[in-house]
Amino acid sequence: MAQYLILIYNNESALNSAGASEVEQIYQAHGKFAQTYGGSIRGGARLADSDTATSIRTEADGTQTVTDGMFPETKEVLGGYYVVEARDVDEAIAMAKLVPSTGGGIEVRPIIPS
User: Fold this and answer.
1) CATH class of the domain comprising 2-110
2) pLDDT digits (tens, 9 = 90+) for 69-113
3) Domain-by-domain residue ranges, the chain?
């Protein structure tokens, strides 16, 4: 079994302005994902809003610059992730299709074993 990272991108402003019933639906969808694939989930978390991010850029000469905020400026931001075990990328994609995302998307990437 291989491990895959499922990255959850959301439209943060839409999520933050969602009503209580919409938020409840999102939590229920994550619960359904956890019930369906709980045995394969190895980790995961919701991330704090993007305005809490700090970015560190390293230049070719090795100097580093620390700034508030994310690297890209975009409507869709990384909002959370799951680490799952799957037989192959096709199974990981099938799993990821159940992960809710509000106005964003889902990215599936293999984790390189250490």
Assistant:
1) alpha beta
2) 877 667 778 899 999 999 999 999 999 999 988 777 999 999 999
3) 2-110
